[in-house]
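Support request, priority: normal
Reporter: lab tech (M.K.)
Component: structure prediction queue

Hi team, I submitted a job for HSF-type DNA-binding domain-containing protein from Otus sunia yesterday, and the status page still shows it as pending. I've pasted the exact input below so you can check whether something in the sequence is tripping the parser. The sequence length should be 143 residues. Please let me know if I need to resubmit or if it's stuck on your end.
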Amino acid sequence: MEEPQLPADINPNNFPAKLWRLVNSPRVQSICWDARGEGLIIDQQLFEREVLAAGLFKTKSFASLTRQLNLYGFRKLGETSSAPGGGSDGEGALSGPLHRFHSPHFLRDHPDLLVRMKRLTKGVEIGTALSQQCAQVGKKASG
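Reply from support: The job had stalled in the queue. We restarted it manually and it finished. Here are the results:
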C-alpha cells in the first residue's frame, strides 16, 4: 500500500506534515483516522513507545504533543479506554487510552488542506481569549 503524497507547497518537516505522514503510514499502528476520516485516534501508550520514544517529534511527552495539536487548531473530542479486540470506529489494533482529535483542515484524502494549518502564536491566542471573554461579558450585560 503506497502512502499518499503531500502537495509540493507543504514543508515536509512541519508538524502537520509529519502527523499526516504518520497517520497515513501502514507501518505506524498508534495513530489512525476515525471511521469517517475526519479525526485522529491516538493510542497514547503505543504512540509514546512507537513515535515519541523514536524521536520523530521534538518532544517525548504526550502532554507536549497535545499542546502542539492545540496550537495547530486541533480540538480534543474526548478520551476513551479501548474496546477489547479493537473497536468499530476504525481503531483496529489500538490498545488505549485512546485520544480523539479533530481539525477542519486535517482530513483523510485531503492533504491539500494542510496549507491552511498555521501554528498559533501568543498574540493570536491572547486575542482569541480576549474576544471570547468580551463575548461572554456582552452576553451577561444584555441578559
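The domain at 15-142 is CATH 1.10.10.10 (Arc Repressor Mutant, subunit A). The chain has a mean pLDDT of 83. Let us know if anything else looks off. Ticket resolved.
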